[in-house]
């Protein structure tokens, strides 16, 4: 569209294109045009000026500037432009220019071609009207995009510039440089060979482009700087690119969100300017990646390196590639993507595949090729399958998730009916299991068991199912095991491991009678020493069986032998075995019972960190539940609650039962009982009801025990009588899944039995505790518990005090309970020593975060006329500071903060609190977050001001 602009109006919706503002970097050309226009207008002269430049060179702005200058000088200005999509009416640019100036001359374009003879009359009418306007006052006709004008318009320009040459009519014609249409090239040649002036708009220089981007973007111009060289010095492209940058959300590193939209045509243009060899080289490089070597290009393109030097120089000159010290790289990702986008998808895939094949021939490790082959390989590609399988085997120990992805792809590439597919599937089962796809691993294992192509694959799938603790869940599981043991082509070690793992599953499931009978003893004797992993499983079975029989010395001995066996296994392979994880967690639990808490924590922390770092999600519930139990033993209730919740969440996400939900349930119930967590206790009670409604004796015993805890929590022991026998059987079993029964449960069980009026049951439990202490002299905890429960049964405060001293700092929660029990008996007897005992209990409970116990002991002290609080001249306990644990910190966090504030290092705090440095670091980090501080100096200042000084004043 076009219009007259003698009143400085501009076409609506095209302000950026026809704005009369000068173009930065075009000062010389703008001054030449202005001087030329003014001279012709003031002299009442005519003439022709031909302006040309590439698209985006600023032609339209230059025309607008010329029209403004002409109007200011008193000339009448007409504007018109060709349309790239073609004209509906020939001569439309000139007719539109005249119709905008003179009503009635033309009423818009008319459809169709003019009839015969009409072109002549239209051309004559346009000429006559231009003559009449030029005679009134100087006339300037601005015609833009001449290269898009129709043939009749071009003929009119050729004819009228000559016919009206004596009039004050100035023609300013703008065209794209090097037009394609022959008629335009002819018109340009004829005009320039006559009296027409010529003004060329070359690309702007780099500094002018930079300044233009600075004008548009201001401080954000730095983000555009890397891309400016690809805008070819064209002002229009600079404005368009800056608009993309301004309206996107780019970063200097990533480039504009839609930079490729602007760069694509520019890159395509540069590609077309390259030779065929140069184009092939840069297109190949764009598919291969952002950084590559000439050797890579040589291998993929199938050409010797010297033959690539000439096209490479060409590409470097075009700034499509940059040369580093020993590698080639693209200036920016957007440039590479714009180049790669010009290739069809199949071609890109073919180039990538050629590179992979070349790297295969060069002996590149399978791990480096696998990520490419996952996307590139096609079904039936045996070579790709072999590479993916090799990569999976290399990564199995360090990254089971990636290994599972590669091997799964190898399975997909193998034909359905091929036996090799089933063998690969058998290898995939443990990788899926470790990475957390438990359901997928079990489903795959069951399919392989039913359709295995040979006895070895069948046996391996059966073993993986047994390792997952699945009890097979296939038809006739016993028959499957017997079938494996009848086959002579299955290695003896594999048969023995399957047998022992099956026995271990039964033992963990509570089938102690069946697993611990003569059949088990015979199996243990027959399988001894056939393989290191078999021997390890053999030791675990013996240790757990000894625990069930309360032969604690034997349990510890076999656990030590299992640990020694693990040390002789290949570390990379050992970490992937469920048997090793089970042996380690069992060993840690026994060490905790024996009083070696630090070694137990170190074992669990090391194994948990390894599982987290390597992505062994199937093992995380086991380690979190083991860690929760150790934290409960150490009296760190809040941390134990978090770990138990994390274990259950992880188990729910992966569908794994390896963690032993029963052990986690017992731990969670105990933690909720002491912390006073009503919601958690109700949830545990609901789960206990579900256990009681089942047929599994082991589950029913655990359900009865947790139900008793819930009853004691509610202070309603009336219905306890019917649950006590099952709960007592649970306590006597000796273990819950892969953890020994907590001896502390014996103390609570005696207290519940006495509270329910079941003294005979209490006596039975006490006798069991004393028998256990006799059978396990190395376990000082057993002796302390036996003394504790005997003191409860006999109402003997001296025994209870002795138990409290025996617990020491290793079991702070049990020690606090013993102090409380002794204090309660002394209070009933009216002894003045009751207060001191109860205050010791209160201090222990507060340190553990046992809020429910704290409330109870405070009530006992108030009955004695004592208001619990800080002793004169000492700092107030952190939990006594106003607010919920001084600024929301947990008791465990407060204990760490107290030591850090007084100058202790993390390691020193860990040694004082009997926790790991990792745990101390976690507490410090949480304290920083809650307190809104960033340094130990701030922490010390805040604590000393708000806690120590307040306690001293009080």
Outline the fold blueprint.
Elements: H1 15-18, H2 27-42, E1 47-53, H3 59-72, E2 76-81, H4 92-101, H5 118-136, E3 139-144, H6 151-163, E4 169-176, H7 182-193, E5 197-200, H8 206-217, H9 221-224, H10 235-247, H11 259-273, H12 276-288, E6 291-292, H13 294-301, H14 309-317, E7 322-323, E8 328-329, H15 333-340, H16 345-361, H17 366-376, H18 382-395, H19 400-413, H20 419-434, H21 438-451, H22 455-467, H23 477-486, H24 492-508, H25 512-515, H26 518-527, H27 532-548, H28 552-567, H29 571-574, H30 578-594, H31 597-614, H32 620-633, H33 637-654, H34 661-675, H35 678-692, H36 697-713, H37 724-733, E9 735-736, E10 739-740, H38 744-755, H39 759-775, H40 780-794, H41 797-807, H42 812-828, H43 834-848, H44 851-863, H45 891-901, H46 906-913, H47 917-931, H48 936-953
Parallel strand pairs: 1-4, 1-5, 2-3, 3-4
Antiparallel strand pairs: 6-8, 7-8, 9-10
Helix pairs in contact: 2-3, 6-7, 8-10, 11-15, 12-13, 12-14, 12-15, 13-16, 16-17, 17-18, 18-19, 19-20, 20-21, 20-22, 21-22, 22-24, 24-26, 24-27, 27-28, 27-30, 28-30, 30-31, 30-32, 31-32, 32-33, 32-34, 33-34, 34-35, 34-36, 35-36, 36-37, 37-38, 38-39, 38-40, 39-40, 40-41, 41-42, 42-43, 43-44, 45-46, ...
Can you offer a commentary on this structure?
Among the domains are: 15-202, Rossmann fold (3-Layer(aba) Sandwich), CATH 3.40.50; 614-863, Serine Threonine Protein Phosphatase 5, Tetratricopeptide repeat; 878-953, Arc Repressor Mutant, subunit A. Helices cover 65% and strands 4% of the residues. The chain contains 48 helices and 10 strands. The strands form 3 sheets. Strands 2-3-4-1-5 form a 5-stranded parallel sheet, sandwiched between helices. It has a 3-stranded antiparallel sheet with strand order 6-8-7. The longest helix is centred in the N-terminal third of the chain and has 19 residues, at 118-136.
């Amino acid at each position: 569209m076009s219009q007259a602009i003698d009143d400085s109006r501009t076409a609506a919706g095209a302000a950026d294109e026809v704005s009369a503002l000068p173009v930065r970097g075009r000062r010389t050309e703008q001054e030449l045009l202005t001087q030329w226009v003014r001279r012709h207008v003031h002299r009442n002269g005519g003439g022709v000026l031909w302006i040309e430049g590439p698209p985006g060179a600023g032609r339209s702005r230059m025309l607008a500037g010329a029209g403004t200058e002409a109007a200011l000088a008193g000339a009448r200005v007409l504007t018109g432009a060709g349309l790239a999509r073609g004209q509906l009416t020939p001569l439309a640019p000139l007719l539109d220019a005249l119709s905008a100036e003179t009503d009635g001359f033309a009423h818009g374009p008319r459809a169709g071609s003019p009839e015969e003879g009409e072109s002549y009359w239209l051309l004559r009418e346009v000429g006559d009207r231009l003559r009449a306007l030029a005679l009134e006052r100087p006339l300037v006709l601005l015609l833009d995009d001449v290269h898009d004008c129709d043939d009749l318009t071009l003929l009119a320009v050729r004819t009228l510039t000559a016919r009206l040459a004596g009039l004050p009519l100035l023609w300013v014609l703008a065209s794209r440089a090097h037009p394609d249409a022959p008629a335009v090239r002819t018109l340009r040649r004829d005009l320039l060979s006559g009296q027409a002036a010529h003004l060329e708009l070359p690309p702007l220089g780099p500094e002018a482009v930079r300044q233009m981007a600075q004008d548009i973007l201001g401080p954000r111009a730095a983000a555009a700087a890397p891309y400016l060289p690809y805008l070819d010095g064209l002002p229009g492209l600079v404005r368009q690119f800056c608009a993309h940058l301004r309206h996107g959300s780019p970063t200097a590193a990533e480039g504009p969100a839609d930079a490729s939209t602007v760069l694509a045509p520019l890159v395509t243009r540069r590609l077309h300017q390259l030779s065929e060899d140069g184009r092939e080289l840069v297109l190949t490089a764009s598919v291969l990646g952002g950084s590559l070597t000439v050797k890579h290009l040589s291998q993929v393109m199938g050409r010797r390196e010297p033959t690539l030097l000439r096209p490479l120089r060409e590409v470097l000159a075009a700034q499509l590639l940059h040369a580093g010290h020993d590698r080639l790289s693209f200036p920016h990702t957007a440039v590479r993507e714009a180049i790669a986008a010009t290739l069809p998808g199949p071609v890109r895939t073919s180039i990538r595949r050629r590179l992979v094949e070349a790297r295969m021939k060069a002996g590149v490790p399978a791990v480096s090729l696998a990520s490419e082959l996952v996307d590139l390989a096609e079904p039936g590609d045996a070579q790709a399958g072999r590479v993916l399988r090799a990569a999976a085997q290399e990564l199995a120990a360090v990254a089971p998730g990636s290994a599972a992805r590669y091997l799964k792809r190898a399975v997909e590439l193998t034909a359905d009916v091929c036996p090799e597919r089933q063998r690969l599937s058998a290898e995939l089962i443990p990788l899926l299991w470790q990475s957390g796809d438990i359901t997928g691993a079990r489903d795959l294992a069951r399919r392989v068991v039913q359709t295995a192509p040979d006895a070895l694959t069948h046996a391996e799938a059966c073993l993986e199912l047994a390792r997952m603790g699945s009890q097979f869940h296939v038809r006739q599981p016993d028959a499957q095991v017997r079938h494996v043991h009848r086959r002579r082509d299955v290695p003896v070690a594999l048969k023995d491991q399957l047998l022992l793992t099956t026995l271990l599953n039964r033992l963990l499931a509570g089938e102690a009678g069946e697993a611990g009978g003569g059949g088990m003893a015979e199996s243990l004797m027959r399988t001894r020493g056939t393989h290191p992993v078999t021997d390890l499983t053999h030791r675990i079975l013996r240790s757990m069986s000894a625990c069930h029989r309360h032969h604690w010395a034997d349990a510890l001995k076999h656990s030590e032998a299992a640990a020694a066996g693990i040390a002789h296994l290949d570390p990379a392979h050992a970490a992937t075995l469920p048997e090793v994880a089970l042996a380690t967690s069992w060993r840690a639990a026994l060490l905790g019972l024996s009083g070696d808490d630090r070694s137990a924590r170190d074992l669990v922390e090391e194994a948990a960190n390894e599982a987290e770092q390597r992505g062994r999600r199937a093992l995380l519930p086991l380690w979190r539940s083991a860690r929760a139990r150790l934290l409960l033993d150490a009296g760190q209730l809040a941390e134990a609650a978090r770990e138990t919740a994390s274990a259950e969440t992880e188990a729910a996400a992966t569908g794994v039962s390896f963690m032993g939900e029963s052990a986690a349930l017992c731990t969670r119930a105990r933690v909720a009982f002491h912390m006073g967590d009503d919601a958690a206790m109700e949830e545990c009670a609901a789960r206990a009801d579900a256990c009681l409604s089942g047929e599994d004796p082991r589950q029913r015993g655990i359900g009865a025990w947790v139900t008793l805890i819930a009853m004691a929590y509610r202070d309603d022991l009336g219905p306890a009588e019917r649950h006590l026998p099952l709960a007592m059987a649970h306590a006597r079993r000796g273990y819950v899944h892969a953890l020994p029964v907590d001896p502390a449960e014996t103390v609570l069980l005696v207290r519940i039995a006495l509270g329910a009026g079941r003294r005979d049951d209490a006596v039975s439990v006490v006798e069991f505790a004393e028998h256990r202490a006799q059978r396990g002299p190395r376990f000082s905890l057993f002796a302390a518990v036996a003394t504790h429960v005997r003191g409860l049964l006999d109402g003997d405060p001296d025994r209870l005090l002795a138990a409290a001293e025996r617990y020491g700092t290793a079991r702070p929660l049990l020690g606090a309970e013993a102090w409380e029990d002794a204090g309660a008996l002394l209070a009933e007897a009216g002894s003045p020593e009751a207060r001191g005992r109860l205050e010791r209990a209160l201090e222990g409970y507060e340190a553990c975060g046992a809020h429910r116990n704290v409330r109870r002991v405070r009530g006992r002290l108030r009955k004695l006329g004592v208001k619990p609080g800080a002793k004169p001249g000492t700092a107030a306990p952190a939990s006594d500071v106003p607010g919920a644990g001084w600024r929301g910190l947990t008791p465990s966090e407060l204990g760490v903060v107290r030591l850090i504030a007084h100058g202790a290092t993390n390691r020193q705090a860990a040694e004082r609190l009997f926790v790991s440095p990792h745990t101390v670091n976690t507490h410090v980090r949480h304290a920083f977050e809650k307190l809104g501080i960033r340094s130990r100096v701030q922490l010390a200042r805040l604590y000393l001001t708000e806690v120590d000084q307040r306690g001293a004043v009080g």
